[in-house]
Amino acid sequence: MKPTFVLVAFAFAFLMACSTSARLYPVEGPFSQQVPPPVLTATVRGIEGNNGPLSLTLPDGTTCSGEWSSAAGVQTTFGTGSLFTQYGPIYGSGMSVTSGGGQNPGRAIATCADGTRFDIEFVTGGGTANGFGFARDTRGNVYRVLF
Fold it and tell me: Where are the domains of the chain?
């Protein structure tokens, strides 16, 4: 009985380590005008690899799901159409991001049951599930993303 319990506990701990939470903080748009502004929490799975599913729930209860992907250690410069280029100077405290040298750029897309869509760009540290980025949705909201 004891070895079975240990095996189940180990499997549970391993599965929990394969996901993380990302928080989306509204900085522009209708959600940012609410007091207090709602913070969205996304569950990101498959973090032991370079892609996987994600899910989140909007403040009104609408569920959303999608997929994320990142490229390990590639040299990337964010161009003019990038969320980093558009919102980084405004909401990123003047940061400038060029990936490479231990940074992994990534993208995520999610669609909600009501048709709302999310476009997310992020950067993680090499070998970690920690990072930051920006997101926007088709409801007119822009978010800072931290995980």
Answer: 19-146
